[in-house]
Specification:
This protein has a five-stranded antiparallel beta sheet, covered by helices on one side. With about 150 residues, the chain is α+β, with helices and mostly antiparallel strands. The protein has a single domain (about 10-140), classed as 2-Layer Sandwich (HIT family, subunit A). The protein contains four helices and five strands; from the N terminus they run αβββαββαα. α2 (about 55-75) runs antiparallel to α4 (about 130-140).
Amino acid sequence: MSSAAGCPLCDDAGGRMVFEAAKFRVIHAAEAGFPAFYRVVWKDHVAEWSDLSPEDRALCMEAVTVVEQSLRNALAPAKINLAALGNMVPHLHWHVVARFDWDPRFPGSVWAEVQRKSNPEREAGIEVKLPALEREMVQRLATRSF
């Protein structure tokens, strides 16, 4: 695995580890107002999607798809947001975020201006579903040849 000194995603998991494969990991990110915010982090330090081989791009996108489907199945969100920006952390990672019409920034992106106050009760209702969601996610990821 290649890494870069000082890169937060090389130096640290980047959140609570949910699943780890040989080439990527899935973490739950602690992002206020977004209880179902996950990242698929490619382990090798590459900055751009095109830095991956076609096979690795397919593998990475399959992992993103499993995370997305797990969120949709368990939470029935209004929308799933997928993003691979890397402007602040030049290490390839995908944000997979379940969005709800009551979240603080909906319908804007998770980085948009706040539209409404956070709803701790609804956030807690999502958080209690995460252990079962993650068990299902891990089972689906573990049965693939990553």
